[in-house]
Amino acid sequence: MRPPRRLLVPLILTGLALLAWTLPGAAQDDGFRGHEDERWQITLENGDYIWDIRLLRLSGDSLLFRQADTVGAARVGQLRELRLIRKSVVRLGEGGGGAMSALTGSDDEVYDMVTMDFATRLRTIQQVLLVHPPKP
Predict the structure, then answer these.
(1) Residue 54 belongs to what domain range?
(2) CB 3.0–4.6 Å: which of 21, 108, 123, 135 could bond 36 by disulfide?
C-alpha cells in the first residue's frame, strides 16, 4: 500500500535526514573545522565594518588581516569591536535555536573595545591571536 501523496515529501525528507545523520563521521563533525575557517568582523569607531576577514598579526599599532586575496590593516586605536563569527549548526532533534543564534549573533565571540584604553586593546588582541592563531 502506498502512502498518501501529501505524506510522500515529508517521508522522503525524513529518510534523507536520517541517512545523513547515520553517515560515518557525522556525529564528530560539529561544523567547525578549526582556525582556517575562522571568520572575523571588525567594527571601527566611525561605524564602518570590515567583515569576512582572517586575522594575521599585530604590526606596530595596527591589526593586519586578510580579506579574500588582499592584506589590510586596521589601527588598534580605531577598533570598536572585534567579533569571531561562529558557524551555526542545526542538529536534528535539538530544536531550531541554531538559526536564531545565527541571526542574533549570540554564538559569536565578541570583544568590545569601546571602554578599553590603547594598552588594554593591544593586550586583548595579543590574547585573541594566541587563542586563535592565524593559519600558517
Answers:
(1) 30-131
(2) 135
